[in-house]
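Q&A log
Question type: sequence-to-structure
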Amino acid sequence: MKDTRNILPPRLADRLFRWYCQNELAESIQGDMHERFADHVMHKGLWKARLLYWLSIIQFINKYTLKRTHSNDSASLNSFAMIKNYLLVALRGLKKNSTYASINIFGLAIGLSCCFMIFSFVKRELNFDQFHKKSERLFRVTNSFEKPNSTNHWARTPPALAPAIRANFFGVEKTTRLRHTDELLYTVGDRSFYQGNGFFADSLFLEMFDFPLKSGNWDTALDNPGNIVLTESTAIKFFGREDPMGKLIIMENETVLKVAGILAPIPVDSHITFDLLISFPTYVVPDGYLADLNSWGWAGFWTYIQLSQETNSEEFKTQITKLYKEHYKTGSDIKISVELQALGDIYLGSSRYTNIGESVRVGNRNSVIGLSVVALLILLIASCNFMNLSMAMSMRRGKEIGIRKVLGAVKTKITKQFLIESILVSLISFGLALFIVFACQYYFNELFDLDLRNSLLDYFMSIPLFILITVAIGILAGLYPAFILSAFNPIFALKGKLHASGSGAWLRKGLLVFQFVIALGLIISSVIVVSQMDFIRSKSLGFDHSSIVKLRMSADAGHYEALRNKLLSNPRVINLTKASHSFDGSASSGPAWLKGKTDKDSHQVSYYQTEQDFLDVTGVRLTEGRFFSRDFPNDSATALVLNQSAVAKLGLKNPLGQKINFHNRERTVIGVVEDFHFSSLHSSIGPIGIVMPFVNLEQLLIKVQGNDFRQTLLSLESDWREVSGVLPFEASFLEDGIQAMYEREEKLTSLITSSSSLAVALACLGLYTLVAFSIETRLKEIGIRKVLGAQLSKLVILLAKHYMILILIANLIAWPITYFFANQWLDNFAYRISLDPMVFIGSGFVLFLISVATIGYQLVRAALINPIKFLRSE
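Response status: OK
Response body:
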């Protein structure tokens, strides 16, 4: 007899029939026609059977089989009833399989909540400064100096630039300059405060930027010398609940300021952050600075411009570059260019600038991208879990689908049922995710310095996006069981012989491998990040930063001498010195060149102002010559100490006695110190010149002894009160400031560690449930093997090896990918760890052990079953 099982009717004819025939009739009619086709092939031949099949397709075209284009009210009611029925069936199914359904819902909810919280942070980072109404026309003027071997990008510009732009160009509507105020002493009545985080600002600042005034006139608040504008929190700090408008403040015991305005709180998404603004005419260049406000060589001011709507920023940039070159004289091998940095690009686009300054917030574009990737990976793991579990759970419903098909249910209705059930479960997960977001907001706020309560209100419009993502996950999870199960032969389904297709098994394996690739990648990343941060914390900085206290003091020389004598008499104090910087990443710089050469041959060298006892306080080692000494009075004006990098940068073979023009003054090199880290370990040690103070410094570094730091600070405060009276005592440990430079990395460490733990938990949760379902389908096989004498150990290995192979594949995929991206991240550090292969192997072994522990109980329980329980029906 001829085998007709593999001979199919014409596909085009089937498609035509499906296209015109009503869904309710198509399946039963087409089944009959397929049986007649097989009979015709057997008795009349293939070609004649195909011809007769086409004739049958055409004959069935009539008013009873054609699809209706308009539905009536009855059909609508029926559709509503069917949807209601689908929902009831879905809820019953969830109740029946409550354990697995809970795992499925909770896993997806965790992924969605993490994704939503990280998204709220990323959205804030990407929308910095967008609250300014004219943000598209506001630019920060920056400049770059390109030399044959290096390029310096400066965010700050000379003080003469803004007035020159205003005087020479018509395409600029407004300009403003900003100069940081440092931490100054402010006196209100009989109370005094140290307050930093402020700016001297040109009069047009409040007209260009939308920082709203609660009191005062933004048009005139910064016009007059001596005017000051406070934020609301600073006004409360200075005046309590009194009305501060028109009140007087004494700055540094000599300058009288008048409160001309009160600002509302500065938005958290502003790259400019401040507590007070002082009118620019109030600013006086400090004594000792060899420059003035007409200087083109003093890059210490931020310049902002507002272009007219007709002005092309690229063309205007060329004009400003020409103006800059006319006034800033450099060598022929140095190329100067001016850049206009769009306001919206400043926060995330300033990583290349070297003199950003204080009170200017700078983000990290790579961190934002990294966080987005982490959120996506967690969501992908949760989604894969959801899809895998949904497919596995659907395989238990073979008999239900078989009965529905026998009772007349068509393929489309069954497909709709699976899709609606899957979408319903995903929406329940979304509701739970929102609850998790609210419950975990405190932890998230601490991690990202973000007020999530406000962000949830601000990002309320993002919720529809996440609903769409959730529905899409539900549809994807329901598609496979919807189309595969609805196409199964009901006879096989009712006999319990329903098995997944080969493609379905490979899909589930692929999803499982994908989950473990992500989980392993995050485990390895967390180990590398933690190791790098431990390396930074333990690396020698070239000086002893322990037990050093930073103390703010008055710039008055008489006050310093009295305070110095008092502190040195304290048994807890070893020594002290004045210092311009505190090794926390901030360092000023200037050009330096050898005597006999010109500024065209200069190199940019950082400078550090301090006194004779600096080496004793910090432990920096002297390698050549001598340090500043009270036996040499001229040291304060002419002496210069270089670090080893500066000696190399300037090309000095015999540095001692060399004459160098540094900070607009000729100085003599008297000594060389060992390289030490005066800024972050993100960058290598640069050249630095140490000079004695040329301005009145207001910071003391005090080397203390003893382990009771609290009592030490109390003792220092007592000495301070005796000398300084009511002046505020502000002290902190130098080590805290150094650690603050790596706060972003510390937060990244916490995030990566938390993410990897969460990813592993989600992946293992999915593995646990999948193994449970897989074992259910193999219980009879296990029973037969036990009856035939299979040992427990061999049964466990038989059941486990499939998953262990998948985990091994995940390792082989994850290792090279993680190695590449970890290397990219480590390249951001000048001093970094090397990537040890054992980190990758060890992480893979840890994941292997976690996986074995996850499924071990299930495997052993399955191997210990009584075979009679499952074979009695055979």
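Response note: Residues 502-538 form the longest helix (37 residues).
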